Amino acid sequence: MNKIEILQDTTFSQDGSGTIRYTKNGKLLESKPLACPYPGYRCFNPIQTVFVMNYTGGSCLVMAPTSAGKTLIGVEFCKRNLKSGGNVIYTTPTQALAREIYKTLKQFFSEVYLKLTGHDEEVGLPSSGSIIVTTYEAVQLGLRNKVSWARTVGGIVIDEFHHILASRGDIIEEIVAVGLLRGTPMLCLSATLPEPHKLINWIGVSLFIYSKWRPVPLERVILDDDFYKIVAQYATDNAKTIVFVGTKKIGWSILERLYEQGYRVLNETVPFLKNDSTGDLPFVAFHCADIPWEEQVLIEKKFREASDFNLLIATHTLAYGVNLPADRAVVIVMRINHDGRWTFWPTPIDILQMEGRAGRFGLREKGQSVIVPVSGKPAQRSKMVNSLRGELNDCLSIEFEPFLRKQLLKGDGIEQLLHLFLVPFIYFNDKLKQKAMINKFYSLNNTLKSLYPVIVGDLTRKGYLCDGKLTAKGLFTVKAGLTIRQTEEFFRRASVRMYPVVDASALFKEPFTLENSFVKKADICRVEDMFSRLGVFSKIDDLVFVYSEIGEGERESIKEFLYWINGFFYFLETLHRVPGLVAKSTMEYKSILRGMLTALRLGLVSYSYEELYLTGCSLRSGLPMEYCLLSSIPGISYMRGHALVLALKASKALPPRLKQPVAEYIEKYCETKDFDSALKKALSYRYKDRKDLDREFKKIKEKLQLAKLQGLLFRDKLVESIIEFSEKSFFAEPVETSLLEVSMPT
Questions:
Q1: pLDDT at 294
Q2: Could you tell me if 624 and 570 are in contact, meaning their C-beta atoms sit under 8 angstroms apart?
Q3: Does the pLDDT at position 124 exceed 60?
Q4: Does the pLDDT value for residue 643 go beyond 90?
Q5: How many degrees, rounded to 5, is the angle at CA 510 between CA 508 and CA 511?
Q6: In the chain, where are the structural domains located?
Q7: What is the spatial distance between Cα 503 and Cα 600, in angstroms, rounded to a whole number?
Q8: Contact 576, 269 (CB under 8 A)
Q9: Is the pLDDT of residue 729 over 80?
Q10: Topology alike, domains 2-211 and 218-397
Q11: CA–CA separation, 512 vs 525, rounded Å?
């Protein structure tokens, strides 16, 4: 194994001049930057040069600051490992980052595909010779489901590898375990990893590169002052500044204060009253998971490009999810009590990651990190300043402890452990190979001997294994990527045979919740009162009661999901769009629908084709199953869809039928005086200004007339394509009969 450390006194400029100073296995060396053959690049930077000169195959770990050119190292890794046959998979923590990497790699390779689910979605996707850009979850399920693009893998790039320390660490451990068993070369990229020698030993890397050199030097200051005052002084600065906050509450409070001072707020959806007036002060914005996806995209684009938008407030997820460099990173740090001891939030590791956003190569000579401790007491703040300095200097010396291992040591990872012990059975029939795979997980390799027979016995008793093989129930759980709790809850709901979309909501990655920055307790009470007046609340209550009767289940999650598809956000007139986290949940409709199709093919449930179709459509649109086909009319989104639902119900119209001509339905139910009156009444719940109401009424009527002229049918082509493709390619390989012998769980 070659260990290379790039020294801090390395010099480099865009014209290709400079001297790379580094040590290789302890020996001091110097080199000039290598010429780069790619269009738009004159030369490789020092980190890229060292990789190109020294990578000869196998796995590699690269630790270098954010924005240090690690993506081009990924390009070189892909180029070399494509020659060995198979696809090269480039995996990232978020879909947003995957899309960015996809656009970048398209500049270098002709065969690049973006795959955001772990399922085949199209016929003829190359099984070798291509770059597949995807997310951690998608590659995990792709490997399990043996999809075409993951059957023959020549290499895997794992970007932002430090996520192994966070809540999705078990996914990264599984990807690495499969790679180790198959002998697949892996490139692990990260800016911040403690004790890298443990990773080197686990993965068996042939090359380790660590860079103390930074493309743009970083100046760090820790300020003992009021954070509102500090943020305000940067709002009019010409330097691009990202302010990282520890909580959404702090982020919104800063944004509201700046708005009150006359700054123009780019966010349309905010939890405070905001008029449409514009001032002369620059734009500011808040980026977090709650804001609608459309606004996230707009904010990111404008921050990169606009000269009058230089201050962006963000939660720590932006440090990991999107490539958005700035000139200055301001990090607001709090003290929190975690597991009985006081610690910093964000953590020192998080702070290093956030500092990585500071510095735009070629535009500024240096980046700046401003760290601001928060405390009501000046004396406490002063202590925090001193403590932070020490912890930031030492944080990469702490113990390397993946999230899964921490959970197991605390006794909180039982669900993950049960699921992970099922996983090897989908890859191997041989007992020794199954044990070998478990042993390849970093967090599990010391627990194998004592836990293996106990856990396998427990999974057998619960009906997930039989005679050392996955049962239909076990196969469903692994292929759909579910925890044992999710599987049990799904089958509990499915046994009711009452409202399939509620069954489907058990398959969300996280329990469905309406909790976000924009919903207050008073809002919930107000909407519940509206539901009661409209006769909706009693129906929701009846459904929740029936589903709760079959077991403890997740009563609150079911209730909040039913609120969502019955128009909860429609009645919050201050919201322009649906909050991001809620919309993100419904974007899981593809994987949820495929999971239900898997259960159906395995004989575990008995849904009809139409039930699955309407379930997928309801999840995608946020409309109730009876009326979800309204979303197939172009321009009818969640808000307008619920206005139509209210109007159609009030005018005693029947719901649309699957594949019914849209023109036939509109002529019968949407061109009457009763309907027009009911639609205006429905819009009055949301629009208090008469002009706004009349404008929206006119737009909806125009959308209906246009759909009528286009000769459309009530059908959801995206949902339809998932079901039809599933019919053609349900298993990549034949399923053993023994897998189907277990009856539907009770």
A1: 87
A2: no
A3: no
A4: yes
A5: 85
A6: 2-211, 218-397, 403-461, 484-724
A7: 13
A8: yes
A9: no
A10: yes
A11: 19
* Residue pair 736/694 in contact by the 8 Å Cβ criterion: no
pLDDT of 375 higher than 80:
no
At 323, which helix (H) or strand (E)? none
Average pLDDT over the chain, rounded to an integer: 88
Instruction: Kindly state the helix (H) or strand (E) to which residue 612 belongs, with its residue range.
Output: helix 609-621
Residue 348 has what pLDDT? 85
Burial group, residue 440, by CB count within 10 angstroms (0-12, 13-18, 19+) = buried
Give the distance, in angstroms, between the CA of residue 384 and the centroid of all CA atoms in the same chain.
33
The residues facing 188 across adjacent strands are 61, 158
Query: Which has more confidence, 71 or 650?
Result: 650
User: Residues 645, 648, 654, CA angle at the centre, nearest 5°?
Assistant: 105
Mean per-residue pLDDT for 502-512?
A: 90
pLDDT tens digits, one per residue of 204-226: 999 999 999 998 889 999 988 88
The strands making up 153-158's β-sheet, listed across from edge to edge, are 27-31, 20-24, 2-6, 207-211, 60-63, 186-190, 153-158, 87-92, 131-135, 112-115
Verify cis geometry, omega within 30 degrees of 0, for the bond prior to 93.
no
The letter for the amino acid at 215 is P
Name the percent of the chain lying above pLDDT 70.
93
Between CA 609 and CA 613, with CA 610 as vertex, the angle to 5 degrees is: 90
Which tens digit of pLDDT belongs to each residue from 8-64?
Answer: 999 998 888 999 999 999 999 999 999 999 888 899 999 999 999 999 999 999 999
SS3 22: strand
Tokens matching residue 17: 């001049």
Q: What Cα–Cα distance (Å) separates residue 90 from each residue in 32, 100, 101, 588?
A: 29, 12, 8, 21
pLDDT of residue 125: 63
In whole angstroms, give the CA distance from residue 470 to residue 232. Answer: 59
Query: How many whole angstroms separate alpha carbon 473 and alpha carbon 458?
Result: 14
Q: Classify 636 in phi/psi space as left (phi over 0), alpha (psi -120 to 50) or beta.
A: beta
Residue 741 has a pLDDT of 30
Contact status, residue 77 vs residue 159, Cβ threshold 8 Å: no
Q: How many helices (H) and strands (E) does the chain have?
A: 31, 20
Joined together, the tokens standing for residue 705 give 């007339």
How far the first Cα of the chain sits from its last, in Å, is 54
Mode of pairing for the β-strands spanning 341-345 and 328-338: antiparallel
Q: Please say whether the structural domain 2-211 has been given the CATH code 3.40.50.1970.
A: no
Distance of CA 268 to the CA centre of its chain: 22
Mean pLDDT, residues 530-537 taken together: 93
Pairwise CA distance, residues 682 & 671, whole Å: 16
Cβ count near 27 (within 10 Å): 7
Structure tokens at 551: 């077991």
CA gyration radius, the chain = 27
Whether domain 218-397 has CATH 3.40.50.300: the reply is yes
Confidence of residue 736 (pLDDT cuts 50, 70, 90): very low
d(CA 84, CA 72): 20
More confident residue, 66 or 233: 233
Using DSSP's 3-state secondary structure scheme, residue 223 falls into: coil
pLDDT > 90? residue 389: no
Tokens of 723: 């079901």
Q: CA 507, CA 366: separation in Å to the nearest integer?
A: 47
Report the C-alpha gap between 335 and 649 in whole angstroms.
Answer: 52
Proportion of the chain in helix, strand, coil states, percent, rounded to 5? 50, 15, 35
Tens of pLDDT, residue by residue over 321-366, are: 677 889 999 999 988 876 667 788 888 888 888 888 888 776 677 8
User: In b/e form, how buried is each residue of 248-258, taking b as 16+ CB within 10 angstroms?
Assistant: bebbbbbbbeb
Instruction: Note the helical H segments in 462-579.
Output: 472-480, 484-494, 500-504, 521-534, 537-549, 555-565
